[in-house]
Amino acid sequence: MWSYAFKRAGTTAVTLLAASIIIFAFIHIVPGDPIYVLLGDTATPDQIDALRHQLGLDQPIILQYLTWAGHVLEGDLGRSIFFQAPVLSVIADGAETSTLLATMTMIWVAVIGVPIGMIAAVRHGTWLDQGLSGGAMLMASIPTFWVGLYLILIFAAWLGWFPSSGYPSIFEGGVVNLRYLVLPSLALAAPNAALILRLTRASMLDVSREDYVRTARAKGIRPWQVVRRHIWRNALLAVVSAFGFTFAALLSEAVVTETVFALPGIGRLVVQSILRRDYPVIQGVILVIVVVYLLINLIVDLSYRLLDPRVELQ
Amino acid sequence: MRYGPSVLMRGVVGLVTASFLIAQANAATLLREATIGEPPPLDVMLTTADVASVIGRHIFETLYALDSTYTPRPMLAENDRTEDGGRTIVIELREGVLFHTGKEMTAKDVVASMTRWGSFGARGKLLMAAATSVEATGKYEVTLKLSAPNGAWKALIADVNGGLAIYPEDIATKAGNRPIEQKDYIGTGPYKFVEWRPNRYVEVEKFDGYKPLKEKGDGFAGARLASFDKIRFIPVPDVGTRVSGVQAGDYDYAEMISGDLYESLSKDPSVQVQRTNAPIFGLFFMNSKQGILKDNYKLRRAIQTALDKSQALRVAFGPKDLWNAEGSIFPNGTPWYSTDGASNYSAHDPKKAKELAKEADYTGAPIRLLVSTNYQAHYDEASVFTRQLADAGINVQMMVVDWATLLKMRGQPEQWDIFVTHHSFAPDPLLLTFLNASYPGWWDSPEIGSLRAELINTTDPAARKSTWDKIQSLIYEQVPVMKVGDAYTYDIASPKLKGLNPNGPVFWNVSTK
User: Fold this and answer.
1) Which of the listed residues A232, B250, B332, B388 has the most CB atoms within 10 Å of its CB?
2) Are B375 and B306 a contacting pair, CB within 8 Å?
3) Does the beta-carbon distance from A42 to B408 stay under 8 Å?
């Protein structure tokens, strides 16, 4: 286990280095320039050149990379050109929203997607299964922004049960502020719960066709115990890895939901920074996202071993 | 232990009640404005981004301010006089004006701000390029000397947008060309900067040391009375969310609502619609420096003749209340309104356009039109015009990029023939970007060169108006830009707000009913 963890750490470092070079190169290849966005319409070439020099953007790209990478190794991700604040604190602020949103979404996904998927699998082929699978397909097909806008219209504008948008930190207003995340997490959960539902159903059906399940049934074990002990536990592997990647994706890719609900999350931060060419923020956020993906990947791999003792980590 | 759950329950109820009461207490004095997005740094001298100006206007002030007819009125200035045929401008400052630090504003602060604005301000060169000196000639007196008179000097220093906001001397001196840091957002305005939480809000609070002018508030001029303790400018990028947010009572004001919602919101009792009286207008810039359209006035006129501007405006802005197919660069009712040349504004005559193109020896070579999708209206206008030009046999190829790319590409004359942007309302022709020869498009023909000099150096308003008439005629003849038409944006607000300002979203003199 430990030697495995060390090996993984080594590959992680190489992946990070490669990722940092790719991120840097791609961002600087894209045309456009933060200075133009910053100074606006009427800036003269002299003003543009002067500010570019001030921000060090006129240096050779390799030098810019080495400077940036050197600071990153010291734990300094630089300063945002637009927010005039350290990139790390900008990311930390966005990370709170994104992590809570992703966690709440995953709770909905687990509470809705997994049990219904199990029911659909157990009642495979019946009208109930057809109905649930059809419903899931529908939920997976409706765009998130549409669901989001209707949730706002119904539950915020008409009924007034939840706030329409925004998210004040729980560190400022306490846990009651989590109510701001109820509607966005539901909007995000809709398609993801549907996918997990279908995945749970499919992998349970796969497992239920295995010989050992037939044997268990032949032994006369009660049907719900067959499901719980033999089918469900084995079907869990696929579902768990899907959970891991869904969570990672929710942290960084919830941009549409974050935009609709005006949430200060990571996804919106990335897109906005790309549009404004806020290089330090883009580089910092993407690097952090890569690290998070690598970590979640590692946790998922390690959890296989816990779920299924036959899995060997090499 | 037996009482555990009930104690816990009481605690929860208490907590919820307390937070509800806190929210209620805050609601009485906090104004929440939903903006279209996150602003760039609030160094209003450097940037012309509207989202920065809207916030910055509450923090920073200018020597003059525009009233509801867009005429400059004294703000931080008390009065002024010109000497030496307009080459020397002496401005007396108001006494007792305090910065947010508590320090009094004096001539030294104005001189330092003017110097920085002249070197690095977005619109600083318009006035300061001709400055030979700017000095404090008294504690409250500033003297600006110019090499030639400037008839628009007051209008050029009457708004914060890329303009001469007055900063404390030390901040203006030390900042140079870098945007000033957040801790240095120190102005003389009725609100002072508190904090900026990325993607959450920018917060300003009432400045207790503010002394409003005695004159009644009018446009941006006159008394500025702050009735809210705090204002939060909250970036809400989705327009649907901005609307629902005001309807739900989560925001008190929301900017820039889309045209398709105008009719339904006008009838909605849960909001009040606030249409601006300062239209923006779409502009198609022709490349005067390089390429097929350089000096090719006939081909430009062929393009102009082929277009039906109303069609593009309808597609881009929707209901008729929100646009006006107006050929005068300045809207009717302003001192600069002119009909000269405007008969060529929207001819929509493909046959005549074809003839003109033929006379210009145009043989169907592609004309590259640079446009961004970040502004839906730009893209809609470009799509409509491309179709109309195809009917006249003019082959336009749209190059669609994002706004940051467009801003860079338009500075490279070999990359494009036409680019699309829009222009905010300007109180004086000198503030029009296309009259600036260094602005992409680079219109610098000998004719405009001499008319521009005349417009700058004339100080008599009637003479300046007659020069402007000639310039507008020339615009329709040489076609350095094509005006699409006037678009009136609109905002929505809670019905509880009163005293809203149609010149733009500012929240002094605004209160709850």
Assistant:
1) B250
2) no
3) no
